[in-house]
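Check my protein:
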Amino acid sequence: MDLLERNPFTTIKANDLNDSEINEQWVDNPQGGFFDVFCPTHKVSQFIIGGKGSGKTHLMRYFSHNSQSIRNKSSILEGIKEDGYFGVYFQASGLNGERFESLPFQEEKKNALFQYSYELWCAGLVIQSLLDINNKEQVFDRQDEFCSSVLGLFSGENELFSNIKTLEDLKGLILTLSKEVDYAVSNAFFIEDIEVNVLAARGSLIFGIPKLISEYSHYFEDVTFLYIIDELENISYSQQVYINTLLREKKLPCSFRIGARGYGIKTFKTLGSGEKNREGHEYEIVKLDDLLSEVSNYEGFAVNLILNRLSKAKFISSDKEHLNIIESSLSVKKEFLNSFFESPDYSEITHTKDIPQEDLSKKIKIFKKSIESTKIPKDDIDKIIENISCNKSELIESALIHLFSQYWSSNEVRVKDIIETSEKLKLDAESFLLDSSDKSSPIAKKISYYKNNYIAKSLRIKHQNNLDQYLGIDNLFRATTGFPRHILTVLRNIYKTEVFEGRTPFSSNSLISIKSQRIALLEASNWFHSECGCEGKLGNQVSYFLHNICELLRIEMYADKPVECSASSFTIDTTKLSQDSRDVVLWAELTGVLVKGQDRQDKNSQALISKYHINSLLCPKWGLPLSHRGALSFTANDFEYLVDAEKKTEYEALVAKFEQSRNAPFGIEEDSIQMGLEF
């Protein structure tokens, strides 16, 4: 078989999997089973909220009747009885609800048509599910009596009701009634006044048929009947009001599991008085993004997900060769997966050299060039550079630049002062080189906090990027935390690139190269970034804001004197923002561009302010850290400049001011410069 066709990570969307593959590629959450989260036997309805790539659709389809039947091949009915639930899965957009929105009728008439059509559609799905089972096992002892009772749920008479004796007959009836509605809707613009006989009251079929099933089949006596509705975001406000009303009026044994993106729930209102459904009463909310938001939870899930894919593609096997891996601890599994990857080596940056290089490093040359733009005498500049350069260690040199810049920026200094500071730093460096275990050293303290910044800057100078910091299985997990589709996307790109390079990935023949990992990760990051711009009504505004906030975080990351270590987060008091800015931040959170952190207490007012992290998969694009340590704090005024495209001039001024505060040269007393020139 062609290697590209064997790519275990080709299919990343659950909608592209058949029911067998949904089961085969199912991976449970090791930190608490998804069964306990989904609670398929519980009668309280749930909204399953998850961003794109969170695994929402896979989860919902796993609990559908189709997947359930495959897992109970010996007896579907016995399996349903033992499971205690029966799920009918469908996508909210399956009925093409937008057809009803543009009809040339009053709102009440359009809604009535949609509701009747939805009632028939759901009834048809239920009857089709019973037919699927009945083709293998007998569901009812008295099928004709069941069909007769179903006819009794209709509120009107119709000549089509005669001679309905079997499930097949019932399916045909519902299909015919549905076609009548479809015909009326399709011809609404060409017929002056369409006529549709509405033969079912709201909920009469949706709730009535499951109740009859439980009465006529002992297999369903104590079974929870689940309507599993996915992609709620794809129907209109008024149609969601109808779904909410069904939740409020539901009758046993029915319950609902409704899947939606974070921004997909437009309302909780119901028909009639317009009263809203309340969480904890009519429904519960499960946030999938939160379940896998911690690296420790996500890693176990992702490791099993990858091993499952590799096993199905026969890259590893469950026989004696790999059985010990498949059944091993998480750490052993991770080590096994990591063994397929070539590891980046930047020891040249992190280790002290025995023989120092002869010339100044590129980093110190860049720093020197920035000082040369001042009026400081050349000889004094040479002295400073000689003192703060350290050819034996790039980390120490970065710390020296940081400490020197920090002193220079925070004081009204003379040339003499900064020369003396550089001489003191030289002595500190010499002492630290002799005893690097001295934790009291200012250099040791800087390296302990800012090591990630220093390595990133050195890599960027050498390679124009710091992609090596994101490579290896541990870092790939950090970059994709919370979004299973993201890790599959990265691995799909890795596999494809390796094959094009003539290698066989995930084999003992060769390691996955650094080059392939870099290309794949950047492709995935760029893909997710492009998705941000088309995600919903505020997508373009979120993209504009994202670019601006990441540009400031990038400056902080690579500055001569970063204030925050490893900053890929920011804090803002959202209560002080304009409504437009609050909407953009909320939309960025709902679409997964931002990940909400724990609120912080403001140092001055003691008020709680919001903290947000940039989605980790976006970090490689801007060279930002994967860790959530430091955070930039913004005033409401400054933050508005990041969001409002009409304030571009103010934003550019903010960037210039920010960059000047983080990078040399800084201010210096003019008199001291003149004195230097005289002498």
